[in-house]
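TA notes, week 10

Several of you asked for a full example with nothing omitted. So below is the full record: structure tokens for the whole chain, then the designed sequence directly under it. When grading your own attempts, check the secondary structure regions first.
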């Protein structure tokens, strides 16, 4: 499985593009779809998007994405569901352009136990990591850990936005660090990817 970075225009958030040679593509978060298309070969189909949290800089491309791939599934939790449908809860109301997701029937709610089959023998698992926002979910697949804004190495965590919680953040951080022990690469919501557990 190949992981490709797309850096979006709004706040330089990351979309992580997951591909295999069977022409199925998966995303972690979704910003500028034109930038995504510039790195995704046209014969690929985007099957699903895993939302790390529902702040607008991580979701604002979803309507454009669904126009192109209408069967694409959007994975989030119940807090993310609400925020996808509220420009107040996803904070886009306070930014330049209001964003409300127009395809609620494509949303699939995740719980920690639920896994999604991406490719033959390749499964995406998830665990909730509230603290930055109650919609925060980290995803793990083949030793790759996608942390969104719940953990960005060398960056001070943001817990003072509405929905943030310092105590929950500490618990989530412990969980993330535990999971990092069994992972090789970390892909945060902003900035570059990291090699973890590299043995010299
Ligand atoms: Zn955020």
């Amino acid at each position: 499985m190949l992981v490709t970075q797309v850096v979006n225009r709004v706040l330089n958030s990351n979309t992580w593009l997951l591909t295999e040679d069977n022409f199925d593509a998966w995303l972690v978060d979704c910003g500028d779809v034109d930038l995504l298309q510039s790195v995704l070969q046209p014969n690929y189909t985007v099957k699903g998007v895993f939302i790390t949290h529902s702040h607008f800089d991580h979701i604002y491309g979803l309507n454009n994405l669904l126009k192109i791939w209408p069967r694409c599934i959007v994975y989030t939790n119940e807090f993310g569901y609400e925020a996808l449908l509220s420009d107040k809860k996803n904070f886009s109301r306070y930014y330049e352009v209001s964003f409300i997701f127009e395809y609620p029937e494509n949303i699939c709610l995740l719980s920690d136990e639920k896994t999604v089959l991406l490719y033959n023998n390749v499964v995406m698992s998830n665990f909730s990591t509230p603290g930055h926002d109650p919609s925060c979910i980290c995803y793990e697949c083949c030793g790759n850990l996608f942390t969104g804004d719940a953990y960005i190495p060398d960056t001070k965590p943001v817990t003072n936005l509405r929905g943030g919680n310092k105590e929950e953040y500490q618990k989530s951080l412990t969980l993330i660090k535990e999971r990092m022990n069994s992972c090789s690469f970390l892909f945060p919501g902003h900035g570059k990817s990291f090699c973890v557990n590299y043995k010299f």
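The longest helix spans residues 166-180. Use that as a sanity check on your answer.
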